């Protein structure tokens, strides 16, 4: 079994995207709200950034989160159980499964929800999320209208407003689809 160094892949992607955007290390660090030293470590593959840090960098770079996580190059992608880049937040532990481009990009995540609350800041305009709860119970959705979900339930919402996730039991799993529109439509 080939072991993939996801920290190095994330670092290379951030470095590549920063260069494409014409940003210096200091400019991206400031835009992402992190120190230059931390960003340098991440780009070198030595960091273990949190989900919040990766979201901040993706937002600053104006790209979907999956663009930081994706291993480029394979014409066909098989993601085996337990494989794929992982990111961790206060209550959500996500593993990128696939990115699918259709007049935009659909990112598919396998997530676990802890019994803590995770408040997610608004994503870029036009981003939508669809969560399908596969096991357990959870609270998910926009802060003002979050819904209690049971296994088999799903929720779809505009994620360009603040939203929440919280597991309600000991073991809660879901598939999360994030839909990013292409610029202009």
Strand content: 25-35%
Distance between the termini: 41 Å
Major sheet description: 6 strands, antiparallel
Unreliable spans are: none
Helix content: 25-40%
Strand order of the largest sheet: 1-2-3-10-5-8
Shape: globular
Counting DSSP H or I runs of 4 or more residues, the number of helices is 5
In total, the number of strands is: 10
What are the key terms here?
globular, 5 helices, 185 residues
Protein model, in words:
With 185 residues, the chain is α+β, with helices and mostly antiparallel strands. Helix content is 26%, strand content 35%. A six-stranded antiparallel β-sheet has the order 1-2-3-10-5-8, with helices on one face. A four-stranded antiparallel β-sheet has the order 4-9-6-7, with no helix packed on it. The chain is globular. The model has no long low-confidence stretch (mean pLDDT 87).
Question: Secondary-structure map with pairings?
Answer:
Blueprint: H1 6-21, H2 25-32, H3 36-43, H4 51-61, H5 65-69, E1 86-88, E2 92-101, E3 104-113, E4 117-120, E5 128-135, E6 137-142, E7 147-150, E8 154-158, E9 163-167, E10 173-181
Antiparallel strand pairs: 1-2, 2-3, 3-10, 4-9, 5-8, 5-10, 6-7, 6-9
Briefly say what this structure is.
The chain is of the alpha+beta class and 185 residues long.
